[in-house]
């Protein structure tokens, strides 16, 4: 298997588990810095015309043995692949950050839920026409429907 090599690191105000919001978009006012390592900084290129990016993270402080976890708002354990817990066999995080500015090898963004010093695995542009699925559903949709029946 190929080894994953971080391309950078997140500089965040969130220092320990419990500091970060459950989802980064819940607190879009907090700005963070993605510092791209020197050997990958040429890949930053020009972000003009791109407002948001997908950031793939390695949640290095996650519990990699968990296959079940309890999502917020419920007391029912669910299979790890049906929820967004950072605790999973391969703790890859997926955030969408709003670009605030680019300064050398640093991308200033908002909308992340990463802890300070979280390794960045990759960055891709967010493309609304292909990344947004308007008719998709999730667990919250099912719980809203259940609430309406009760």
From TrEMBL:
Swiss-Prot/TrEMBL keywords: S-adenosyl-L-methionine
PROSITE patterns cross-referenced by the UniProt entry: TSAA_2
UniProt key word DNA-binding: no
Pfam families in alphabetical order: TrmO_N (PF01980)
Family matches, as SUPFAM superfamilies: YaeB-like (SSF118196)
InterPro entries the UniProt entry points to: TrmO-like_N (IPR023370), YaeB-like (IPR040372), YaeB-like_sf (IPR036413), YaeB_N_sf (IPR036414)
Domain TsaA-like: 4-135
Domain of life (superkingdom): Archaea
Family, similarity comment: Belongs to the tRNA methyltransferase O family.
Descriptive protein name: tRNA (N6-threonylcarbamoyladenosine(37)-N6)-methyltransferase TrmO
Organism: Methanomicrobium antiquum
